[in-house]
Amino acid sequence: MTSPATSAAPRSGALHRGPILAALMATMALSAMDNTIVATAIPQVVRDLGGFSLFSWVFSAYLLTQTVSIPVYGKLADQWGRKPVLVAGTVVFLTFSGLCALSWNMASLIAFRGLQGIGAGAIMATVNTLAGDLYELSERGRVQGWLSSVWGVSAVLGPALGGSLAQYASWRWIFVINLPVGAVSLTLIGRYLHERVARARHRLDVAGGLAILVAAGALVFGLLQGGTAWGWLSRPSVTVFAIAAVAAALAVAIERRAPEPIMPGWVWTRRVLAGSAVGAVGLGLLVIGPSTFLPTYGQEVLSLGAIAAGGVLACMSIGWPLASSQSGRIFLRIGFRDTAAIGSAVSVLGVLCFALAPQPAGVWVAVVGTLVLGFGLGLLSVCTVVGPQSTVAWQQRGVVTGAIMFSRYLGQSLGAAIFGAVFNAAILRRLRSAPPALRHRLPQQVDEVSAALGRPGHLSGTAVAGYLRQAISAGTHDVYVGLAGVAVVTLAAVLAIVPRRFETTAGAGADHPGS
What we know:
This protein is mostly helical and 515 residues long. The protein is built from 19 helices and two strands.
């Protein structure tokens, strides 16, 4: 099969980098904002479509398909070029955004969200790869800062926009609004991105790709369902993880023999790449913890409004792009490994700021800790992407970037499962150890705690309400203790696995002074 080769592509589109960067930011905004804008409209979606017991899959289906498809798109971007993969993925994303807006029940919405995630996987795999193609090493930190700012703006704008559209128009508009943004992005990409590629014959690794999709899909599915839909040691959980293990072993066997494997073995044997992948998993874990539990803590424990609670979390999205924009100066001076280590160490301080504070921690403790954590993650995120990219040529950059992005989203799925179990266990422990005078008045299940606190006047100002808030505070504190452990392990892994100095390739950061 004939497809584009990679001969002269590293500087493709260099004359129009400004419009292309704008297109990349607009395209990334589609994926970055999608979950945050949907979250605030879920009550209206459920009222219209029904299916309350299924609504969590509106998010899970999207995350699942996005995560498992990223490695495949990374390989296709190396074989066929970045532009066709990005354009095709964006078209898929927009097509199923429109179909999400036309959903007639919860099942159809979940199905369309899953297919929409397949397009999002292409976006995440290629946007960061193109940034590595178009910019010199000295510029990539600044560019990553711009791309990171998209996530920061999305974290703040998404909930407000989603709530406004759901309240004053219809929840269906949260999907329709993707269409004009995507159209602008496709127009800019079509006009300004011109890859200089030759034609070459490639062999598609269909068997390896299917094995990877099954292995990754079963793993992520098991992590999303474990502890919620079924117990971790239940028969469904054991079955799903067994399927993941068998498929992973099969994928390794297939990839070893494939002429052009989707996920080559050298990605995991080179210390730079393996260490960066571990750092990306840690990054995903550190992102998902506060993102999931801090807004609940702000509203239920600190009695903040939804907007104010979201504002506390948004502090992470302020520190992140600030650090990313300055990371280039740092890693050009001291190297990728040491910069990533500094980012991990700062992340440790950020989570300890909350974990070591007297409980319940006040709003300013949460604000400062989240801001510091965002700064640390900004340094770590750039180094785990730009560092590996700088060690390979254009022909391998898509695979490497895809592996790193897959690791990051796998970390998020793993974190959602682990920290959810930690949070629920802490609350359940508090419920079972409550004073006898309160025990019969307390909810018996974790799922009932937030609902009990949300009933107007039902528990307000009572000892029961205070005890439940203390339970949520204890659960959030335990999550942050776990986050501190993750940050320390990430720091140790970066220092132990990633070499302090490594070779960079021509055209991919050869101007690096030596890290």
